[in-house]
Amino acid sequence: MELLKQRILKDGVVKAGNVLKVDSFLNHQMDVALFSEIGKEFYNRFKDCNVTKILTIEASGIGIACVTAQSFNNIPVVFAKKNKTKNIAGDVYTSKVVSFTHGREYDIIVSKDYLKPEDRVLIIDDFLANGSALEGLIRLVEDSGATLIGAGIVIEKGFQPGGDLIRGKGVRVESLAIIDSMTDSSLTFKD
Ligand code: 5GP
Counting atoms of ligand 1 from 1, which one is nearest the CA of 23? Predict the structure, then answer.
């Protein structure tokens, strides 16, 4: 998606540990006009799949998922909660995720009320790096018996293993910008 790539080149900042900071338009301040274009692009890619629900993970995925849901005729958005305590209350699906940015392992949970076998789920997230967040979300969908349509990712770091890992499981992953390489002074995209 050209608009997104141009914005990454203009405002993205490469940090230590292969972290791309996009706080000025995606992860802290949010450019809603850009989000709207992102939502339309995800819709174009998945419009023939009868998606009934969007699943994301708190916090950064929520804004993108909500704007995307508007393009899908306002289907519901469910966000997996990051659970820091060991006590997981209630009737929930749960899986483990290793945080890319903090290195910690944590549980993610979704209430069984909001993922049902009849759902056709599109997962949306901001970044794909090692694939742990996406793997965790996929597991929640599988455990619920819902149908996984695929995953829409805003920025995939193609030089990290997540994309190959998840596509290797047969999951359709659509990334709007795939970064081939990045250093302090240069950033290149695949295609
Ligand atoms: P993964 O689980 O694929 O290793 O990492 C995905 C998650 O880590 C995303 O949900 C995102 O929050 C965070 N993340 C991974 N890489 C980056 C990055 O380069 N920049 C930012 N801002 N977040 C990242």
Answer: 22
Q: What is the DSSP letter of 185?
A: S
Please name the amino acid found at residue 176. L
pLDDT 10s digits, 60-102:
999 999 999 999 999 999 999 998 655 556 799 999 999 988 8
CA of 70 to the centre of ligand 1 (A): 24
Where does the chain have alpha helices with state H? 2-11, 32-46, 60-71, 132-144, 162-168
Cα torsion 67, 29, 15, 100: sign: negative
Q: Single out the residue of 32, 141, 132 nearest to residue 94, CA to CA.
A: 141
Q: Which amino acid is at 115?
A: L
* Model pLDDT for residues 42-53, shown as the tens digit of each residue: 999 999 999 999
Rounded to the nearest 5 degrees, what angle is found at the Cα of 41, between the Cα atoms of 183 and 182?
A: 5
Cα separation of 173 and 184, whole Å? 28
Helices (H) then strands (E): counts for the chain: 5, 10
CB of 182 closer than 6 A to ligand 1?
A: no
Q: What is the DSSP letter of 115?
A: -
Q: Output the pTM of the full model.
A: 0.96
